[in-house]
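Hmm, what's this shape?
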Amino acid sequence: MQRVSVGGTLYFFKEETMMQEKHVFEEGAVVTAEDIAASLKPLIDEYFVGECNGEGETLIYTLPDGKRFEIAVTEK
């Protein structure tokens, strides 16, 4: 487990693991913000201690101490 201090707060992260699979973009494919958010969720689950829930284009990440973060994906 890795420890990182940010602004005096100590966070714990799961051990690094190697990605086994990479998503490949195919010409003409339609990719939505919801698709990107859904692809990020397993990465957050794998690398961070806490809980991550998906809500469409938004992920809610909750640390073990209850602190919550919203990760929103928007198309520009």
Notes: The two ends are 36 Å apart (CA to CA). Strands lie at 2-6, 9-13, 51-55, 58-62, 68-72. The chain has one helix and five strands.
